[in-house]
Specification:
The complex is a heterotrimer.
Chain A: H1 2-29, H2 37-42, H3 48-57, H4 64-76, H5 90-125, H6 130-144, H7 147-161, H8 177-183, H9 185-211, H10 214-221, H11 226-263, H12 269-279, H13 282-309, H14 312-315
Chain B: E1 4-17, E2 20-33, E3 37-41, H1 48-54, E4 63-72, E5 75-76, H2 82-88, E6 93-96, H3 100-103, H4 110-120, H5 126-139, H6 145-148, H7 158-169, E7 176-180, H8 188-204, E8 208-213, H9 216-222, E9 225-230, E10 233-239, H10 240-245, H11 250-258, E11 275-286, E12 289-300, E13 304-308, H12 315-323, E14 330-335, E15 338-339, H13 349-354, E16 355-358, H14 362-365, H15 372-384, H16 388-401, H17 406-409, H18 419-432, E17 437-441, H19 449-466, E18 469-474, H20 477-483, E19 486-491, E20 494-500, H21 501-505, H22 511-519, H23 527-542
Parallel strand pairs in B: 3-8, 3-9, 6-7, 7-8, 13-18, 13-19, 16-17, 17-18
Antiparallel strand pairs in B: 1-2, 1-4, 4-5, 9-10, 11-12, 11-14, 14-15, 19-20
Helix pairs in contact in B: 4-5, 4-7, 7-8, 15-16, 15-18, 16-18, 18-19
Chain C: H1 2-9, H2 13-30, H3 32-35, H4 66-102, H5 104-118, H6 122-133, H7 137-164, H8 167-175, H9 179-215, H10 227-234, H11 246-252, H12 256-283
Helix pairs in contact in C: 2-4, 2-12, 4-5, 4-7, 4-9, 5-7, 6-7, 7-9, 9-10, 9-12, 10-12
The chains are: A mainly alpha, B alpha/beta, C mainly alpha.
């Protein structure tokens, strides 16, 4: 038991260290600007006085490492500083939007994960059947189509032609859960379609790899029923790869959300990030990037730890 | 009640490859009585495992039974429903796989996997099955039978796992067990314990068995009758003793004959040449794990020194140290009187040239994208600076030397060669460098016996013609007997004993050498019985 | 080469479809000025001309010919994606092969750096860097090439490590062959098939990535014709699609044309990749 704890601890430490390095990259990248933020924002023509005033306001006169530490300290407590573009506190700007983004990603995951895992298993079980081959072709489409292509086709069918769902997902703070689910149905469907086929294919591959192993053959030769072979002999050993597949795709969802938010004009973190990049609102970009990157790293870390726990060889050392 | 348990007639099995069905078994008959043990032997590709699995009405993925009839205890299995077959499998016909480590599910304890069969087939309840498991573990002589079942498969050693698997096969007291090469992956000293355990338990419960193996001596100990297969056809079948003493068919005779290969005359030693390789006080480690400990060894010029040991003895590591792939932490290697730098990077091409190595797996030792011309041409170019016509001529000479037709083979890729041909190319590549000393690392162990014998004869001929010196690494004592002048026995990274072949093979032996030598199965059907008797007597005398 | 021709003859229908798609795109991209009826940037007609002669796919909001812009778009988008992928490969494969073959500290450091770079989602990383560098084509190509080279590094390193465990590598090392020979003659020929397949996959990824950035307004900048950008420019029209008449329907389909062009090329490349992968796994038997 101690061995597995130390493996998990080691993995956790690597995760924390990675996160730490990533914060340095996100913060430090801005320092690569020719000149500094002040000249960048105010332009070359700005007077020395206005530049100094700006630097004073944004605390740019302190040495780099001090600014980094106070930025990091703020970020941990949800205080990301002030937006360059509209002078408002960033925490206020992005708080609700981050929640919206996680809601949308969670919505899509709630649809995609169960469907993907179950149908991936079925495809593995009926390897080579019509259903299996249909799944393979749909994977090809899903990895080939740009997100916005899928989104516009869905809009064309379900919004323009059939009129079932709104094409704009403009939710408000006051909306109830039902209203939200309805308004965000098309973006959630888009995200689902993007990750679904891929997740199914990977689940199928994970199980198929397993089904060729001698101990699965042994279970058949012991006269076990087919469902028992899959559920009792194969599934526990397939957990680790399936967990990895899910985490990988959840992480992808969090990022894929950026494009989908723009298509559906959904008030999420992705949209504000894209706007901030166009306006070169550096502090907002830093905050949004940090949230996205942290979520991505944490999901991957979680997947690693869960698959360590799911491995009997590590769980029960010699 | 008839004695006939299994009656397979005119069995035909096909496998699918390259979008076509190709025959694997072409109409074989097999009959087995209750309590009888049938040995099924053949070289790789003979179809013996396929036939064994068919006795359970089972084929591997991509194969099918295309004809014939399989009657188990009067019940037809070809075309029977999945459910009918399922109820027979595990309950009345059980299976023991080659690699127990792979055939146990890593997610469950041994005893849970033992109990699954009897409980699900309704033979007994869980508690009873668990008590029964401990009982069988005891009978099959597993250490600590009360507790061992509560371990996970990866927590138990290979030989013990193989015995636990036999116990599991026995859990429903089946009428028939299929043993599919159960000891092939084990060391000889472990193999003997597993063989004894299997034989005793099968006899005790009067279980019929099909014992599949490529090892004639093993089958001689286990089987009442022996059936020989060759490429999906039956060659012959006879009671074990008769088959061993008086085989009828040429193919069977040739299999038996392999065992008798001996190098013709002892090497005529050139006078006053002294040792070619001197190894003194070599210690080497992989990271913190010490694998070689103070090795001292001299290899006389023009002789063959065999290094013998089981897995983990450090014999292959010694080869890597000599080749400079693993620099030793202490010690020195002299070649022809000159000390060799520890790492191959520090050695001059000329030193490298004189010492060559041939690997066990010819498959991975040849670059699959290089044609024979390139494989053989590169060392000629690299070491000897041969170019153009001179190089081409020498490649052809080398191919002739290893008994392959140059016109036919020079443009082939490794994938277009058989296993034995690949190993010959590896030999030619070593010869291309015009070496004095060649290390042969288990060069015959991946090959079928007839092919292996051809390789040994070739190596022997080359040695006499070119005055080569060999270091022959092997775990197979039969090979040692046929080719070695001097024998070195290794265990756990140290040399246990060394001497001339006659010294090592005739008493008195060191205890480990004794164990090793006595564990090698012999063709005598009474060998295992006698040996166990003898060892039992020794133990009894100690008590 | 002869081998390759033999394989080509045995190629399945899907591979042939893929090859046909890629060839057509290539011809259009290379000969864009020959095939396009109008120029890329100039306004040549009325706003939103319907799908009829001389503007067979209509005109956009600025009166530019959509068909011509699509054809030039092939040149711009695909060209930049190809350049970026090639750069990513040069970088990633060189380091990957070197790291695997050399091993030791070089390998350890390179692998760590790539781990950290890959811990940040690529789109987010690209957005961060583009904020700083601004959205010029050069910075676009460099940023994406560097980010994508991490994936190439991982794959080529893994493939090479697999090959390096083979005994024929040991034989070459014992002979005293140099690093260059090892990589060029022993590793590369055996790594070729998975690397070619990876090139296809990476191209698809880069191509979709650039299109996505352009769609967000952060990639290739107007007035250069680019498919992602064209989707962005015409996105709002989809709300006006209306299937009552041919004219109204085609009007609303405007964003689907460039998006479909992207999808079709990606499918074509993927079909070829599948075939290459299948062939290389078949050769192993």
């Amino acid at each position: 038991m101690n061995a597995i704890l130390s493996i998990i601890l080691k993995r956790l430490m690597v995760g924390v260290l990675t996160l730490f390095i990533v914060t340095i990259i996100i913060f430090g990248a801005v320092e690569l600007l020719p000149g500094d933020i002040a000249t960048e924002v105010l332009g070359q023509a700005a007077t020395e006085e206005s530049l100094n005033a700006f630097r004073e306001k944004y605390d740019l006169n302190r040495p780099l490492h001090e600014r980094y530490l106070s930025w990091l300290g703020g970020a941990v407590t949800g205080d990301f500083g002030i937006s360059l573009a509209n002078q408002r506190p960033i925490g206020e700007l992005i708080g609700q939007r981050a929640a919206n983004t996680f809601f949308l990603a969670g919505y899509a995951a709630a649809i995609a994960v169960p469907i993907a895992v179950v149908s991936g298993m079925l495809a593995a079980l009926y390897n080579g059947s019509v259903f299996d081959r249909m799944l393979s072709s749909s994977t090809l489409a899903a990895i080939s189509f740009p997100e916005f292509f899928i989104a516009y086709i869905l809009i064309l069918i379900f919004s323009v032609a059939l009129g079932w769902f709104p094409s704009l997902a403009n939710v408000d703070v006051g909306d109830g859960v039902g209203e939200r689910l309805y308004r965000t149905f098309l973006p959630a469907m888009t995200l689902t379609l993007i990750v679904l086929a891929y997740m199914m294919r990977m689940t199928r591959a994970a199980i198929l790899n397993l089904l060729a192993l001698p101990y699965i053959e042994m279970a058949h030769l012991k006269g076990m029923k087919r469902w028992r072979v899959i559920a009792v002999h194969a599934l526990p050993n397939a957990l680790a790869p399936i967990i990895n597949v899910i985490a990988l795709n959840l992480a992808y969802l969090i990022v894929g959300v950026v494009l989908v938010e723009v298509v559906f004009v959904y008030p999420g973190l992705g949209q504000i990030l894209v706007d901030a990049v166009s306006n070169r609102d550096v502090t907002v970009v830093q905050a949004a990037c940090l949230i996205f990157a942290a979520t991505y790293i944490i999901l991957n870390l979680l997947a690693d730890i869960l698959s360590i726990i799911a491995n009997p060889r590590l769980m029960h050392p010699r | 009640m008839t004695d006939l348990l299994l009656d397979m007639t005119d069995i035909r099995i096909e496998g699918r490859s390259e979008r076509r069905w190709k025959p694997i078994i072409n109409g074989v008959n097999l009959r087995l009585n209750r309590g009888e043990i049938l040995g099924l032997i053949g070289e790789s590709g003979a179809g013996k495992s396929t036939l064994g699995l068919a006795a359970m009405g089972y084929t591997k993925g991509g194969c099918r039974i295309s004809g014939g009839s399989i009657k188990f205890d009067g019940q037809e299995m070809v075309g029977a429903s999945h459910n009918t077959l399922r109820k027979l499998r595990g309950a009345r016909i059980a299976y023991v796989a080659q690699s127990a480590a792979a055939a146990f599910n890593p997610a469950y304890k041994l005893i849970d996997q033992y109990c699954e069969g009897p409980v699900k087939h309704g033979v007994m309840g869980r508690d009873e099955a668990q008590r029964d498991a401990v009982e069988l573990y005891r009978k099959i002589r597993l250490p600590n039978p009360d507790q061992i079942g509560f371990r996970y498969p990866h927590q138990v050693s290979g030989g013990q796992l193989q015995r636990a698997m036999t116990a599991m096969a026995m859990s429903c007291r089946p009428d028939l067990i299929i043993f599919d090469e159960p000891t092939t992956a084990l060391d000889v000293t472990t193999q003997i314990e597993v063989l004894a355990a299997i034989r005793d338990i099968v006899r005790e419960y009067n279980t019929a068995a099909i014992y599949i193996t490529h090892d004639l001596a093993v089958v001689a100990q286990m089987a009442d009758r022996i059936k020989v297969l060759l490429r999906g056809d039956e060659v012959e079948e006879a009671p074990a003793r008769q088959m061993l003493s008086d085989p009828q068919e040429d193919y069977t005779k040739s299999l038996w004959a392999v065992r008798e290969f001996r190098r013709e005359a002892p090497q005529a030693q050139p006078e006053g040449t002294g040792p070619l390789v001197e190894i003194t006080d070599i210690t080497a480690a992989y990271g913190p794990i010490k694998v070689l400990d103070k090795i001292d060894l001299t290899i006389p010029r023009g002789s063959t020194v065999a290094i013998v040991g089981e897995s983990g003895s450090g014999k292959s590591t010694l080869a890597r140290v000599i080749m400079g792939l693993l620099p030793p932490s202490t010690g020195q290697i002299k070649f022809d009187g000159t000390p060799l730098p520890k790492s191959s990077r520090e050695r001059t091409p000329d030193l490298q040239r004189h010492v060559q190595m041939i690997h066990q797996m010819a498959d991975t030792a040849l670059n699959p994208k290089h044609r024979i011309r390139e494989t053989l041409g590169r060392p000629l170019e690299f070491f000897l600076g041969l170019k153009g016509k001179a190089k081409e001529d020498r490649i052809r000479e080398l191919l002739t030397l290893i008994e392959l037709n140059p016109d036919e083979f020079i443009d082939r890729l490794p994938s277009e060669l058989s296993g034995g041909q690949k190993q010959r190319i590896c030999i030619a590549r070593a010869l291309a460098a015009e070496p004095e000393f060649i290390i042969c690392d288990e060069v015959t162990s991946a090959l079928d016996q007839l092919v292996a014998e051809g390789i040994l004869r070739l190596l022997d001929r080359l040695q006499r013609e070119m005055n080569l010196t060999y270091m022959f690494i092997t775990h197979d004592l039969a090979t040692v007997r046929s080719i070695a002048d001097k024998v070195v026995v290794m265990q756990h990274g140290v040399i246990v004993e060394q001497g001339t072949k006659d010294e090592i093979f005739s008493p008195p032996h060191k205890p480990y050498t004794e164990l090793l030598l006595s564990s090698v199965p012999e063709m005598d059907p009474d060998w295992l019985t006698d040996l166990l008797q003898e060892r039992g007597d020794i133990l009894a005398a100690k008590d | 080469m002869q081998n390759f021709m033999n394989n080509l003859r045995d190629a399945p229908v899907s591979a042939w479809i893929g090859i046909a798609i890629v060839v057509i795109y290539a011809v259009l991209a290379i000969g864009a000025p020959l095939f396009a009826p109008f120029t890329e940037r100039a306004s040549v007609g009325v706003q939103y001309h319907p799908w009829s002669a001389p503007h067979y796919l209509g005109t956009d909001a600025l009166g530019r010919d959509v068909l011509s812009r699509l054809i030039y778009g092939a040149r711009n988008t695909v060209g930049i994606a190809l350049l970026t992928t090639a750069l990513a490969f040069l970088l990633g494969a060189t380091f990957g092969l070197l790291a695997a073959t050399l091993g030791g500290w070089f390998d350890a450091i390179a692998a760590r750096v790539v781990d950290v770079l890959m811990a940040i989602p690529p789109l987010i990383f690209a957005l961060l860097i583009l904020t700083i560098t601004g959205t010029s084509v050069l910075s676009l190509v460099l940023v994406i090439a560097v980010l994508d080279s991490t994936r190439v590094f991982r794959l080529s390193r893994a493939v090479a490590q697999g090959i390096l465990t083979m005994d024929y590598i040991e034989v070459a090392r014992m002979r005293g062959e140099g690093l260059l020979w090892l990589i060029r003659k022993e590793v590369l020929p055996n790594a070729a098939a998975p690397m070619i397949a990876e090139f296809g996959l990476r191209f698809c990824f880069v191509f979709l990535f650039i299109s996505a950035l352009s769609f967000l307004g952060l990639g290739i900048q107007p007035p250069t014709a680019d498919w992602g950008g064209m989707v962005r420019e015409s996105a709002k029209l989809i709300g006006f699609a209306n299937f009552s008449s041919w004219q109204a329907a085609t009007f609303g389909l405007a964003p689907l044309l460039p998006a479909g062009a992207i999808a079709l090329l990606t499918i074509g490349v993927n079909l070829i990749v599948d075939w290459v992968l299948h062939m290389s796994s078949g050769l192993k038997e």
